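Re-running alpha-1,2-Mannosidase to confirm reproducibility after the cluster update. Everything else is unchanged from the original entry.
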Amino acid sequence: VSLQMMKHAWDNYKRYAWGLNELKPISKQGHSSNLFGNIQGATIVDALDTLYIMEMKEEFKEAKEWVEKNLDFNVNAEISVFEVNIRFVGGLLSAYYLSGEEIFRKKAVELGEKLLPAFNTPTGIPWALLNIKSGIGRNWPWASGGSSILAEFGTLHLEFVHLSHLSGNPVFAEKVMNIRKVLNRLDKPEGLYPNYLNPSSGQWGQHHVSIGGLGDSFYEYLLKAWLMSDKTDEDGKKMYYDAVQAIETHLIRKSSGGLTYIAEWKGGLLEHKMGHLTCFAGGMFALGADGAPSDKTGHHIELGAEIARTCHESYDRTRMKLGPEAFRFDGGVEAIATRQNEKYYILRPEVIETYMYMWRLTHDPKYRQWGWEAVEALEKHCRVDGGYSGIRDVYNNHESHDDVQQSFFLSETLKYLYLLFSEDDLLPFEHWVFNTEAHPLPVLHKDDENKEKNQK
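Result of re-run:
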């Protein structure tokens, strides 16, 4: 089914928005997000590996030809370093590792080089925004006193280690290792990592902590850096398990109705709200269970299962059986969005991602059942003639579509669904680690280093 869904999403993108970043499936035209500046083709690059994995060979070939002829980084535009890294660099790296086509390696390294000026700050903590022609960077004006954001500078590690691996240029790995150094030097309030860090002073901004937006993938990449290093990156491992310990102590709570959730921390006060983005953490805890201190493995799997259940409830308690952007646990409500501006669903993957990890690590059939419920809801409420659209209010009887088919729907949501219903030997976890945009990157086995050197 996810194959037919992919075909519907891709064919319509091709028909109405080919070469543009994303598709507006209702107006049947292109959608350009300012996150990518003037770089074009986000959906193509994000979907390459999904097309390959689903054996959509014709489509993959067309996409590859577009990349060869049209993917251009010489544009005078300001981009989000984080978004361009996880979607474009990640997408190109995966396409290369899966297909072996040299063009993808070449483009990935070329783009990586264009991102390097973002690290030209007093601390080496990169800017959030970069003009890739002038090399001038800055931060989001709303971010605490000119700070960089934990989830943004903390979600470059996997891709940049691979850029060094594939280019033979150590600078990429050095840049992300330096970020670690800066973080290790700093005092963490209660062992937690605030979402804001000033790239000039090297000091934390506001003491806000979140495992959802602004924080989320930083934690994911600590664990995955260790896994991707063939479990040699002891520093990444220690940082991850220490962080989880602090998260458990300070952020994880149980509602009166028995649902485990991860709250947000604001200068010592808890906000009892959990974002859809935070739902990825169920899969993360389960994936990290194996490396946890020996008596804790079962506990981490259990934690993953509890988060999966809470996030399933957030879907189940809506009219459309699709989860809201954020849901609360206060004033008698549980796992329900109480604010209008949190009731939307933009085709996000995190809940299905957690189902996929839980299925692979436990084989409990309920995860496939829950995934199937999501498929039915997507088909019923998000599928339109011209593709798939997000929804403005999942508690409503009538769909009000937002008219955007996000590139991550093809990259993540549909890929995780496909993997949930595939055999475990498709992209097995011992050989592949998924970046935060679901782009699979190979584990770098110790003997790879020597192989690479001999080939050069």
